[in-house]
Amino acid sequence: MYELVEVRKVFRGGDVAVDGISLTVGAGEHVAFIGPSGAGKTTLFRIMNLTLRPSEGAMRFDGVDVAGLSERALRLARTRIGTIYQQHNLVGRLRVVHNVLAGNLGRWSTLTALASLASPRRDAEGATRALAQVGIGEKLYARTDELSGGQQQRVAIARVLVQNPDVILADEPVSSVDPSLALSIVTLLRDLSHESRKTLLMNLHSVELALGFFPRIVGVRDGRVRFDLSAEKVTPELLGELYAGHRDDEVALERFTIGEEFYGRACRPLPGFGK
Amino acid sequence: MAFGLTLLASLRLAQVDPRAFFTPGAAASVARFVGGMFPPKLDAEFLHLMLRPATETIQISVMGTVIAVAIAIPLGLLATSSLTWRGILHERRAEGGARWLGVAGYGVSRAVLSVFRSIPEYVWAFMFVRAVGLGPFPGVLAIGVAYGGMLGKVYSEILEGADPGPLEALRAGGATRLGVIAYGLMPQALPNLVSYTLYRWECAIRASAILGFVGAGGLGQQIELSMRMFQFDEFLTLIGMLLVLVTAVDVVSGQIRRRLVR
User: Fold this and answer.
1) A51 vs B166: CB contact, 8 Å cut-off?
2) What pLDDT is recorded for position A259?
3) Which residue has the higher pLDDT, A249 or B164?
4) DSSP letter at A16?
5) Considering only CB atoms, which chain A residues are within 8 Å of B169?
6) Which residue ranges make up each domain of chain B?
7) S-S: B79 plus which of A163, A237, B156, B215, CB 3.0-4.6 Å?
8) What are the residue ranges spanned by the domains of chain A?
9) Taking the domain B43-260, which CATH number applies?
10) Residue B222 to residues A24, A186, B127, B202, B244: CA-CA distances in angstroms?
């Protein structure tokens, strides 16, 4: 699905966010990206969802070099990639139904889009189904900013379901919700992409969730890939090195390695889910 | 310190001198003016005659604001840097061609808006009276152009202030530029856009009174006539009517605002 070769991203002002990452992700794979904050994971995701243009290096999406894409081809490629953000990135003033139906914008004409904004009844069925899948079917006509953080993240997931992409990129989808909700949201994303054979890439702050749910783990630090291993090969030493110098992360890691499982036993891979 | 100096200099240069109120000539003149105002002229014939200019004032303000909005929407959108050339929607845009077109549109629309609002509506009215003759029409045009410049500038600032997060998300999902505007930008900006437009309409009522002084119709023209004819009783009635109009518009726009801006 993805082929990155020595991708670098240098922001105006000279900050190097991604410093030469090479990576291949196959179709249908589930991969977790972990690493301390500021490691460049979010920038990497914004490159992979075709929001940012790499400063150097090449990226192929589904076999096509994205550097040469026309405006229109770029847009079509984007419809195949769904993104879930830490901050939801919904429009709070709109009703839930419109935020969910916004997943259709890649295929809708401007006229259809405006008509749906005026009267969503005709298209509401798709939104209802998606909301039911994420477990908040009754919120269809609620105003989005009246929902809780966890519910809003579910609305964002429903938007991606309506978009129905080949790849789901989830950038820290559970950092702003409490642990039990985090668990259910990660489970939901994992199961949904498993059922529909979507590729799932997730940035995670929690090592425990990453190791519990993902067969393949990529450790990122200082804009580089430190390790790219199957979950069972990730050792405490590797994790210690990855987070060295980041105190909060080290404390959390220590609790994890001495066996204080924050999320409990629910946090285990599906049987037969290895790579 | 600098402020203090500026204030002192302004006092001198603007010839601020409260004593001017208390010279014998001023007192007599004020007495004649105030004395002439009472009782205000309230006979049915005069009120009936003034109904037309009063309606005209409302019509000038409404039509002027409509023209201002018609000018401000296209120019304001072009003058929004986050839509034309800068920021997250343009990250992957190729350098050259299309980008420079965006920058050019941005620059030109900013310049036009700036000219429109730098020239006071009074001066615009003066020019339009020369161009299309006396009456309400030059007043409408003057308010349309001057307020179009102000609205366009403020529209672009409101749009630039919108949270870019939802826009990035829609763009990343494959939405077209218009789709991003309709689902991401407008829902965020609409309350402020409406609210500021209503505020400008309130200002337009007041402005249309001033514009009457250069012959652009409405209550203002009657006020100017009464003053020139030393009919201060008519003057007081007209000022009272203006007060009623301004209050009515404030109430109406307040109602609309409350319903739209939650």
Assistant:
1) no
2) 59
3) B164
4) E
5) 83, 85, 89-90, 156
6) 43-260
7) B156
8) 1-80+169-176+198-275
9) 1.10.3720.10
10) 79, 72, 20, 20, 16
Which residues of chain A carry a pLDDT beneath 70?
Answer: 247-248, 250-251, 254-275
Direct distance between the N- and C-terminal alpha carbons of chain B, in angstroms, rounded to an integer: 43
Average pLDDT value over all residues in chain B = 85
Q: Is A173 on the interface with B (CB under 8 A)?
A: no
- How many whole angstroms separate alpha carbon A255 and alpha carbon B46? 88
Chain A residues in contact with B195 by the CB 8 A cut-off are: none
Cis peptide before B191 (omega within 30 of 0): no
Is A121 exposed, middle or buried, given 0-12, 13-18 or 19+ CB atoms closer than 10 A? Answer: exposed
Pairing status of strand A30-34 against strand A216-221: parallel
Question: Number of CB pairs < 8 Å for A and B?
Answer: 92
- Give CA–CA dist A1/A66, Å, rounded: 12
Question: What is the Cα–Cα distance from A150 to A135, expressed in whole angstroms?
Answer: 11
Interface predicted TM-score (ipTM) over 0.90: no
- Determine, for residues B174 and A108 on separate chains, whether the beta-carbon distance falls below 8 Å: no
User: According to the model, what pLDDT value does residue A264 have?
Assistant: 53
Task: Nearest chain B residue to A76 by CA: give it.
Answer: B174
Listed in sequence order, the residues at least 6 apart from B125 whose beta carbon sits closer than 8 Å to its beta carbon are B138, B139, B141, B142, B211, B214, B216
Is residue B10 scored above 90 in pLDDT? no
Fold classification of A1-80+169-176+198-275 is Rossmann fold (3.40.50)
